[in-house]
Write a structure and sequence with these properties.
alpha+beta; about 20% helix; 6 helices; about 40% strand; rod-shaped; 5 domains; seven-stranded antiparallel β-sheet; conserved putative lor/sdh protein from methanococcus maripaludis s2 fold; single chain
């Protein structure tokens, strides 16, 4: 029976507590103001009287300071301290800022193309009719000297007859005593032979005519180069004219890859650079190419420049028209680098968290350069060998902004940076009576000593309590600040009210003449 009564009594107590909390929420809502907080509107309770039994403290508006950097949306941040146990739980890791040679990789998509310096056009220097066709389809591989077609040309046949006649005349005049006649006959032979050679009859064909003294009605024309036929207009029976293209032959022992490089990358692209090439047809293989040409103009529509790479193709695997992926590694000098995931980029600013030792992390605005794989160049804001956080940075950022809100502290834009491991720290110890603090009035005591261990007696010390909003309970964010007075030997005391039980973030701020000497952050659970 007693246990049943106790359970009912406990249940009633819970119900009464919930009613009191909800009632408090409605009272808070009656005292709401709306204040800008990093571009959002937060609700803050003000002017709560002691009718709630919470004391007579006025809760100051919760506002986050923003640095005047000329760009909207830049959040204020404060130094944070994460104890080693929490660092391990959160997975916080740090790496050193390195100075290293920067290798920039430029990636581009290209297309395999014919090496234009090896293209050969087959045409004639006289008119005629094609009679027999030996190379009769596109794509055929031909060797230099292979027969292509036979041609009947009246002009060519006439010149052969003239050549035969000149030979016979020369033979008849060999025994002549007239030297001028003999010389004239020799010149006629040379002239006819020269015309046949100019019309692309081979030396063997000309020699055959001279030997047999019989003109060839339809002499064979031969391939002038080794390669693949990539264009063919020749057909049996076709009448062709001088200069008309009949075949195009391409030597594919070397090919080009033409790729488009963005205008912004041109400053580091150099003729002679070597590139790594992959093709969709051979995804497991990597090939080496050499940059041989950069176009002298920019494509206005795409703002790119076509660059050309030469690639050996002895086995003929690379086919013109294939897509290729090109990676060009170029030197970008020497500079400071950090991992990419160390930099928080909000669009308006880039921030890293510098490890200062003893679990302290300082938010530092940096100027970044080019991203080089998994590292990014740092142009300004960091020094060599400083250590930055590379994991749990989003947690550090949220904690830093919360601390800035808690402190209401704005660092000067030109405040000097202190290098990692050399920062002088004030020892700040916080106590409350009772311990832990209780809802209502509490006595706070703070002991401040300088880095040498000497008591600090001339500082301004304040204790700030902050509780985030709890929208589900209709409770706004709350903040209270209690100034402390120096009593003796670096000990400061004061009395302040804590409005309600729960988890509070506490910040102890120590300043002198407006300059921040140090802060201490902790979390307390108020009874």
């Amino acid at each position: 029976m007693r246990s049943s009564v106790q359970r009912r009594a406990s249940g009633m107590a819970v119900v009464v507590s919930l009613i009191v909390l909800v009632s408090m929420g409605y009272v808070f809502r009656a005292h709401l103001v709306r204040l800008p907080l990093i571009g959002e509107w937060w609700q803050t309770a003000v002017g709560i009287d002691d009718g709630m039994g919470m004391g007579q403290d006025t809760v100051a508006p919760v506002t986050l300071p923003s640095r005047s950097l000329g760009a909207p949306g830049i959040a204020a941040r404060a130094e944070v301290r994460i104890d080693p146990r929490r660092q391990q739980l959160l997975g916080v890791r740090t790496v050193a800022v390195l100075r290293q040679s920067l290798t920039r990789t430029i990636r581009a998509v290209g297309v395999v193309a014919y090496d234009e310096t090896t293209l050969v056009d087959v045409n004639l220097k006289l008119d005629g009719w094609i009679e027999d066709l030996f190379v009769d389809y596109t794509g055929r591989l031909v060797q230099e000297g292979d027969p292509l077609f036979t041609l009947y040309s009246p002009a060519l046949l006439t010149t052969q007859h003239e050549y035969v006649l000149a030979l016979e005349t020369r033979d008849e005049l060999r025994a002549s005593e007239d030297a001028e006649a003999r010389s004239y006959a020799e010149r006629m032979v040379d002239s006819a032979r020269g015309r046949l050679a100019l019309w692309d009859l081979s030396p063997d064909q000309i020699a055959a005519v001279a030997l047999t003294r019989t003109p060839q009605r339809s002499p064979v024309f031969y391939s002038p180069a080794t390669g693949y036929v990539i264009s063919k207009r020749a057909m049996a029976g076709l009448y062709v004219t001088a200069g008309e293209s009949l075949y195009q032959i391409a030597d594919l022992s070397t090919v080009w890859i033409e790729a488009d490089v963005y205008e912004r990358d041109l400053s580091v692209v150099r003729v002679g650079a070597h590139a790594e090439v992959t093709l969709d047809a051979y995804p497991r293989n990597r090939f080496s190419g050499r940059l041989v040409h950069i176009n002298p103009y920019v494509e206005e529509r795409t703002r790119t420049v076509t660059v050309r790479f030469e690639l050996a193709n002895a086995d003929g695997r690379f086919k013109p028209g294939m897509y290729a992926n090109v990676e060009l590694a170029v030197s970008a000098g020497v500079g400071l680098t950090v991992p990419v995931n160390a930099v928080l980029d909000s669009g308006a600013e880039q921030v890293v968290f510098v490890a200062l030792g003893d679990g302290y992390f300082e938010p530092r605005q940096v100027q970044v350069g080019q991203q080089l794989g998994d590292v990014v160049e740092i142009l300004d804001g960091l020094d060599l060998a400083e250590r930055v956080a590379t994991a749990a940075t989003f947690f550090l950022d949220s904690e830093s902004q919360l601390r800035a809100a808690l402190q209401g502290f704005e660092p000067a834009p030109d405040a000097p940076r202190r290098a990692s491991g050399t920062r002088d720290r004030f020892d700040i110890q916080f106590e409350s009576r009772p311990d832990p603090p209780a809802s209502g009035s509490n006595e706070f005591e703070v002991t401040v000593r300088d880095p040498a261990g000497r008591p600090v007696a001339d500082a301004d010390v304040a204790v700030v309590f902050f509780m985030a909003a709890m929208p589900t309970m209709n409770m706004p964010a709350m903040r209270s600040e209690t100034p402390l007075l120096h009593v003796a030997d670096g000990v400061y005391r004061g009395t302040g009210d804590v409005m309600m039980p729960g988890r509070w973030d506490v910040s102890v701020q120590v300043t002198r003449a407006g300059a921040l000497l140090g802060t201490a952050q902790l979390t307390v659970v108020v009874r």
